[in-house]
Amino acid sequence: MKHRPLYLSALIHAGLSLACAAVLYPVLWVVKLSLSPTEALSLSVNPFPETVTLDHFRTVLLASDSAGRWLFGRQLLASVAVSGATTLVGLSLAVTAAYALSRYRFPGKEGGMQVLLLTQMFPATLMTVPLYSLLEKLHLLGSLGGLVLVYSTASLPFCVWMLKGYFDTVPRELEEAAVMDGASPGQVFWKVVLPLARPALAVTALFSFMTAWNEFILAATLLDDQASFTLPVALQRFVGEYKTEWGKFAAGALIVSAPVMGLFYALQKHLVGGLTAGGVKG
Amino acid sequence: MSDVQLTNIHKSFGITRIVKGVDLHVRSGEFLVMVGPSGCGKTTLLRLISGLESPDIGDVHMGGVRVTDTPPRDRDVAMVFQSYALYPHMTVRENLAFGLELRKLPRKEIQTRVEEAAGQLELAHLLDRKPKQLSGGQRQRVAMGRALVRRPRVFLFDEPLSNLDTALRVQMRGELARLHRKLGATMVYVTHDQVEAMTLATRVAVFNGGKLQQVGSPLELYNAPTNQFVATFLGSPSMNFLAARRESGTLSGPGFSLPCGVDLGEVKDVKVGLRPQDLRVQGDGEFSGTVEAVERLGSDGYAFLQTAAGPLVSRFDRGTNVQVGDNVKVCLLSNALHVFSADGEAAILHPGDERPRVEVPA
Amino acid sequence: MNAARTGALALLLVAGAAAAAPPLRLWHAYRGAEEAALEQAVKRFTEESGTQVELLALPYDAFASKLASAIPHGVGPDVFLYAHEKLRSFREKGLLARADSRLVAADYLPNALPALQLDGATWGYPLSLKCLALYYDRDRVPSPPATTDEWLLQLEQLSRPEDGQFGLAYEAGDFYFHAPFLFGFGGTLFDGAGHARFTGKPMEDSLAFVLGLHRRGYLPEEASGALVKSLFNAQRVAMVISGPWFAGEISPEMNWGIAPLPSVSSTGLPLAPFLGVEAAFVSSRTQQAEGAQSLAHFLSVGDGAYLRATAGKQVPADTASHRTDAVKRDVFISRFKDAALHAVPMPHDLELQKMWEPMKLALRGLLQGGTTPEAAGALADRRYRALHRPAPPDAPVMPWLWGAAVLGLAAAGWAFSTRSREPFRKRYPEAWRGLAYVAPAAVGVVVLILVPFSVGIGLSLFHHEPSGAYRFVGLSNFTDILQSRGYAITEPLSFYFTLFVTVAWAAINVVLHVGIGLLLALVLKDPLLRLRGLYRVLLILPWAIPNYITALMWKGLFHRQFGAINALLVAVGVEPVSWFTRFSTAFAANVVTNTWLGFPFMMVVSLGALQSIPQDLYEAAEVDGASKWVQFRRITLPLLRPALLPSVILGSVWTFNMFNIIYLVSGGEPGGATDILVSEAYRWAFQRNEQYGFAAAYSVLIFAVLWLYTTATKRLTATEAA
Question: At C255, is the secondary structure helix, strand, or coil?
Fold first, then answer.
């Protein structure tokens, strides 16, 4: 590869730094808000806190209820449980369905794919009301399990589409080779197809996890115990009828966002490959 | 016993009929090469033997046992794919061991077999690499090794050498022949390369349009092709065909007349088949034409002529000076005349025949 | 013997059940000191009665809808705390039980109980009162004004707008804060027929008065709660109109007082604020009516009220606690009690619900848009009429049923006639395995997505009554929307205008997402670029942040007075922009926010797509002498297109329905102009008297538009490829 002239290099780095600054600036404001002693905004260009206090973080992290239960801990646990279970359930549902859609011929397949795409188009906000009645009939109200089911199906259409696209790119001959090697259909799937689909699985898992981790409207509506609220619901409690506690909200927002950021960081290598192969075949 | 018997096999995909009634017996221990143009059904037949596909009609027997509905893993066959189909997430060692692990062989046994195969194929130093880090030839050898470690009754090869360059291909061809001699296993090999067919095969099966055209030893097929298709397919350059008319003892067409010592019966119109190797550019001969192109191979060469009867390819010897644009004469070596029916469907006469093979009405 | 034993066992079971009666469930949305006080009061209740109580604190935003969902299904609380303004809505949905004989009128302040009365009964136990009063800075306002004339004099002296000094600050754009002026000038909310009223002299006078305050520079521009608080704490404003919640926001250095709002000099009437009565309501579906009633009652009087006043700083609605020394000594509570005595209980009539949006429009027009008071009233009236949608007439159901039956038969016939002649086993050799693999996901999707989805579509043919009943109205909802009844198609609130905004919104966003994403991807794909990994990690960041947090964050950045964006503008010498008062800037703010959060996805997709283009194509082009630009246009773009297309389609569908950003950043400002179809649907469903059917019709139209769009895109690309 040829060497780039110096001025071009400088230009590229300047542009990228600018983009990064634009990305970081608002985030720094949230950090500042969470570390500043006041609850208020103040007019300033400087995104760095002038005085630093961990009070907001302390309040958020040490929250407990009247019974002395450590709320934050329990809510974190609930969030992790719900999101983890959603990822697991959503992924296993999506993987099997996507594999079948990619490999087998059966009646209703094309229609099914279309329906999955269509579900992305109906505004979700308006499904809450019927969904509530439905979950009540299924005796799933107030349980984390019900929430897990709802979340994992909510992210299902996207996950299935992406995984199907990825499976389409896995050469059939590899599976046939495994069959010739004596693998049962299950072994072909577990030992050959799944390991190959790792990037797509990572991305799908990330999406399922994020869906569950960030959602609060359904969680607030469906759950009936403060200790099993997920973190976004707890976060939403800082937005009140008359005023919002911005400092605590910002601290909470950072705490809620941190795990997802970590996941993104850990999975970013897979992100590119996982998304594309699915996208290419779409 | 590890022979394979295909009986009246039919197979179609959607509305396309790929295999239209094939009977074929692969003898135990032989190296059978299936050749034919693409789409002739040879690969499908291989997959039917492997169990990856099942026939619409017909049966597959192995070692005398019906295996038509048996899944691949219970057929004790191994297959080498054209694309090699190596598992990209496994090392060479894991690739080789995979089939054995699935069969729950003892760890020690697996290790012995893998190392033995690796030694045979000179893969020992590559065992811990991933397929991505190998060259084309090395990958090909891993693919072979994967079949080898299994020690199956039947080896199936689906154009395994087509992705290699010429030199490697020659080398691997030799290696395959050696393997077959050593293992004595039944091998079924699909290719569209007639050189591979001629050099490797115990017997060759030629397919066209979903039907078996002829099966026999390479020389049988070369010397006595059963129809124009088989004659064209084997031998390079291909056999020449000229339309001719039988008049008493001669076969003649525009600008040529060939004596025919055998009584061909009532038939009037035929095609004569002349292998370029049986023709010589000489000072005098039965054919004359203009040289349009010349292929020199060193020791000898081929001249591509336009004659009154149509295009003709003829060999010439090293000493002969042939130039494009020359008008030359070509003669047919004695006892080298093939005669086919006018539609090319049947061979009437091959060199050395005492009487016509079929009676073709006038 | 055996029977006796069984009998004994049953008895034991019954006894056990009685002893372990489930705790009473109490739901609320209190926070901070109020929550702590409530917890103490509940603890006291348990000590006295022996009944356990389970508290559930909910986010305010989700509270009302959760109550409405949970109680009818029998899974709600036994007692819940809410402001009385929702009384009628709760009552019509049948969520409430009457307060029983425990409730004694004399126990409460005189205007607390009427707020909770409806249909000749009282429906809750009043807990606390909330209304507006005048906070003033004692250092600069020695005595609070008694009349508006006095007030105007003081304001004139206290205001120096050129120095950023104002006499008064309050959230002038909110009708809740304007209501005292309306009442002070002799206005009423409703006309004789009970309809909301936006015109007439009192309304105009009140608007003119506020406009006068504004024109003379007594009020800061676009005061939000945050601005009011910060100005007061910075001693840049001397007086503030606000409620009890404001006290906690004042910095401890301030020397401040509270007074009732002054009277209007010309009418002699007090500026009477709305009175909000927070009450303990007993659920209609409680299984333990006795315990629930006694808990609700306990909280409203005696120790309950006393604790809430002393520990929670609430203004209790009962009289007894106001006679205690501790409460009497609390100036804050007693002043608010005085203010509350003048206050007008907020009507729980549904008609009031329809006033907020029009009045907000009028006030914003008046204070920011230069509308005259008369025109502002008329503006509100017009919006009211558009929102005040009379229920469509019932439609006969039978023709629809017949139509559905005929359609179903036709579909079945068609399916049968087009059935392939090929035998099933042959055509689908692995059908059973495939179906088995798909089944779990399919069941999930059908039950949890398609069923609610079909219900949603079905709802669009119904009209939802405030009482919760549905009436079949055929296609009326659709004809109403598509005829854009009452509004020209070029005005906000008409379907076509909103559709146009939505399409522009989606298109601009997708172009920006793809453009920025692709540009960055082109730069970042170079493996030799230094710091490539770092750039990539940083640039992906917005994707990892939940979008409601992003939205609130950017809303803060766009804040008129405290936003960093305006600070940046000021720093480079540009006038600060009032982002949400004009369509163009509000729309731009939305777009900036959504672009910020949306480009990383496209960047990652583009990066992958770029990697899939074989490098030798570029080398070939290089040999052919193609410049970088030509290479990009003739190789990169065409090869990228198929790879990006699915993501672009998906991205535009997501953006089309990107509710959170619109709702949280611009909130539809100004006047609903930046609302997109989804947020409009949401408003009809949840902010305009629960017109679920109408909202569902909107959703169906959204769905139809998107369906057309994706089909057309696919068709186009398919023909192009062919």
Answer: coil
| Cα–Cα dist A36/A60, whole Å | 14
Contacts of A103 in chain B (CB under 8 A): none
Was domain C133-272+354-387 assigned CATH 3.40.50.2300? Answer: no
* Burial of C190 per CB tally in 10 Å (0-12, 13-18, 19+): middle
Instruction: List Cα–Cα distances, A10 to A7, A23, B346, C537, C630, in angstroms.
Output: 5, 20, 77, 20, 23
The beta strand positions in C310-448, using DSSP E, are 344-345
Closest approach of C238 to chain A, Cα-based (Å): 19
Instruction: Please list the helix, strand and coil fractions of chain A in percent, rounded to the nearest 5, in that order.
Output: 75, 0, 25
Of all residues in chain C, what percent carry a pLDDT higher than 90? 25
Q: Residue A184: closest CA among chain B residues belongs to which residue?
A: B73
Do C247 and C335 meet the contact criterion of CB atoms below 8 Å apart? no
- The b-or-e profile of A88-108 (16+ CB within 10 A means b, else e) is ebbbebbbbbbbbbbbbebee
B46 in reach of chain A (CB within 8 A): no
- Cα C36 to Cα C101: distance, rounded to the nearest angstrom: 29
Question: With an 8 Å Cβ cutoff, is A183 touching chain B?
Answer: yes
Tens place of pLDDT for every residue, chain A, 282 residues?
456 778 888 888 999 999 999 999 988 888 888 888 776 656 677 778 777 888 888 888 887 776 777 888 888 999 999 999 999 999 999 999 999 888 888 877 888 888 888 887 877 767 777 788 888 888 888 788 888 988 888 888 888 888 888 888 888 889 999 999 888 888 888 888 888 888 888 888 888 898 889 888 888 888 888 888 888 888 888 887 777 788 888 899 999 899 888 888 888 777 777 665 544 333
Q: Are C209 and C185 in contact (CB under 8 A)?
A: yes
Q: Residues B50, B85: contact at Cβ < 8 Å? A: no
Q: Which of C58, C447, C559 shows the shortest C-beta gap to A41?
A: C559
User: Where do the structural domains in chain C lie, given as residue ranges?
Assistant: 21-128+277-345, 133-272+354-387, 390-483+689-722, 484-688
Q: Report the CATH number of the C21-128+277-345 domain.
A: 3.40.190.10
CATH assignment of C484-688?
Answer: 1.10.3720.10
Q: How many CB pairs under 8 A join A and B?
A: 57
What chain B residue is nearest to A193 in terms of C-alpha separation?
Answer: B87
Residues whose CB falls within 8 Å of the CB of residue A174, separated by 6 or more in sequence, listed in order: A192, A196, B85, B87, B88
ipTM: 0.88
Task: Kindly report the average pLDDT of chain C as a whole number.
Answer: 85
Q: Domains (ranges, CATH) in chain B?
A: 4-228 (3.40.50.300), 237-349 (2.40.50.140)
Considering only CB atoms, which chain C residues are within 8 Å of A169?
Answer: none
Comparing CB atoms, the residue among B73, B88, B150 nearest residue A179 is B73
- Cβ-Cβ contacts under 8 Å, A154 against chain C: 448-449
Query: CATH number for the domain including A276?
Result: 1.10.3720.10
Residue from the list C58, C543, C653 with its beta carbon closest to the beta carbon of A121: C653
CB contacts, 8 Å: B94 with chain A: none
**Domain C133-272+354-387 in the same topology as domain C21-128+277-345:** yes
> Which 3 state secondary structure label does DSSP give B9?
strand
Q: What one-letter code names the amino acid at C442? A: A
Q: What is the pTM of this model?
A: 0.81
